[in-house]
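ARCHIVE CARD
Drawer: 12
Card no.: 0347
Subject: one protein chain, sequence and derived structure
Cross-reference: see card 0346
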Amino acid sequence: MTDFRSLLRPDRGESAHSLHLVDPASFKAWLQSQPLRARAMVEAARFTGKAGEVAILPGDAAEAWSVAVGVADAGTPGRWCLARAAEQLPAGTYRAEGSAGPAAHGWLLAQHRFDRYRKDDGAAGPRILLTQDVRGIEREIGLASAVATVRDLVNTPADDMGPAELEMAVRAAAEGHGAQVSVTTGDALEQGYPMIHAVGRAAARPFAPRLIELTWGDPAHPRVAVVGKGVCFDSGGLDIKPASGMRLMKKDMGGAAHAIALAGLIMAERLPIRLHLLIPAVENAISGHAFRPGDILRSRAGTSVEIGNTDAEGRLILADAITRAVEEEPALLLDFATLTGAARIALGPDLPALFANDDALAADLLSAGTSNQDPLWRLPLWDPYAEYISSDVADLANAGDTPFAGTITAALFLKRFVPAAVPWAHLDLFAWRPSARPGRPKGGEALGLLAAWAMLRGRYDPQKS
């Protein structure tokens, strides 16, 4: 993990290169305030204050240079406005004019590398940012660390990130916080969580399925359940995916990665809740033990489910985990899942689809996403589409015969296992960035994590938020 703590430090007046944040609206006035030699350099660099532009300005001495950074709005720096500068500038110490605020987030993550499998690529040394917002340093380091956790877990290939490794990640998150971790496997899993067992039973023994649970916090505080889909690799099962569809399926545990990172934030910030984290962890493999199209599975809730497609496995394991969560009568239930390709067709890679059975919860999440540059898009739990997952021989089917409304029917499937009295939100996300942006390389990505965290802080610790 990148040492973010060494990259963001309190400004105590030490020598540093200044970062001038300039937007197109303020560019002309700012330029007129600069010395002639700086203006000449700006013109040579064709710097106009557009977001993402960077220009180095000469000073009175060789080491006294500063940097002009183009941003969308210099008055309210965005989360990613310093990311390109952090990628391009040489190693050294820099000072943001005024408070870096949320812009520190992009500065830190622009320097994060997933290098577990690579030799040293000779990247530039650390770019240290000094900030006057001393109280915000720990917050930004924590948020960057949470995003990096998601990226690293998702980027790790399935051979090194199976159910056992997800369990290790949960145990690592629990360390130092007094959390309790329990794991259900084997016969106990088959009897207690039959759909988790059925989906994962075809995998080789080192990838044995399990339900991982973590509990933390004062039992007197409101109980919040966080569930994350942990399909460590998804072949599609007997309804096998094509090679192109299987290529990125190491990321099908992206929901679990988000849930683990969120749990880490909750515990580190000591949010006054009783946390219940649940990770159903499986590999959807192919063997003589694989579950089959046409099988009827009995869920933990007692609901019978006809298997219409073995590649619609995520909703099966989530249903058993959600059933366990609601047995404890949580005040709020939140699940993360890389659940449907239909959500990506509708909304693309950047926008998680949000479903909620509670309008106030949905509004809080949408508002938190907007204010934290981590947007969500709400889709309806349109009950008439429940007919698409009806079954002639079981209580419901995990997949229907129609191509319509795939992400909605998946959410409706999960809704069957959530009591109406429990406020619930479901995030169907991609957990992957198909092309690089400043501070956001191609690969595993946290989407909806900051929105969920801001929502929880706003609800349960409003003074700090």
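Annotation on reverse: The chain has two domains: 4-111, 144-460. The CA atoms of residues 350 and 459 lie 25 Å apart.
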